[in-house]
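Sequence in, structure out. Go.
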Amino acid sequence: MPTEVRSARIAAAYLLTRTFICLLGLGAVIWGGFALPVFWQQAAASGVASAILRGHTFKMQWLSGATRQAEAAEQSAFCNPTALHNAVVLRLDALDKAIAATNQTLVDSTYGPLYDATRRALSCAPADSFIWLALFWLDAGKHGFDSDNANYLRLSYALGPNESWIALWRSRLAFALFERLPTDLADDAIDEFIKLVDTEKLYPETAAIFVSAGSTAQSRIIAHLKTARVIPRQIFARTLQDKGMSVDVPDVYRPGSERPWK
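Output:
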């Protein structure tokens, strides 16, 4: 009798185990049916977004398709920081193309969804320096520079101080508004520019930013270049000379700078 009871218990346990495994498998199939299409859509959008940040360009129809795929993340009730970040990158590139094409209708129809996307992304990942910078650009571009959007720029500096791919765009924006920046943001812009020079990799980019900056910003950059390392400082000065701009970079020899009697 004990043997029969034991056998019955083993059979019951076996049946329960099989039932559990079957239910688990069924749940996985159902989850996969819902999740896999979303996953592949987000993977495609992520690939395009990554390529954009590396400098690749896409035609508007390709970009529109990737943006539609990213909308799944925007409409989801779940917080997916990476997918929402990618959605902002895609929409930002679409707006940039609309501006370049001087298509005001397209600019107007692209701006609102992008602005909403940045807000949604920040509600999910408030430490994303790039998204704060995007929000600053959007808000300052439409409403003008003010104390509110200055805080967006301030947060971008604070949350992403050592990310050169963000810093290049941030420097272009900051120096375009340099005369209007409060003291702390002007100091941040100068300090970040010197760090970019010190990377020893971004000489063409930093030289282009310097050339496009106003005279006040250029004077401050030159004064602070003495804090950069010698070799980066020399190469930066040479890059400016190659662009036809000769400046007195501290402790860097400039051809033709000697007085005639020397």
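Check: The radius of gyration is 27 Å. The chain has a mean pLDDT of 81.
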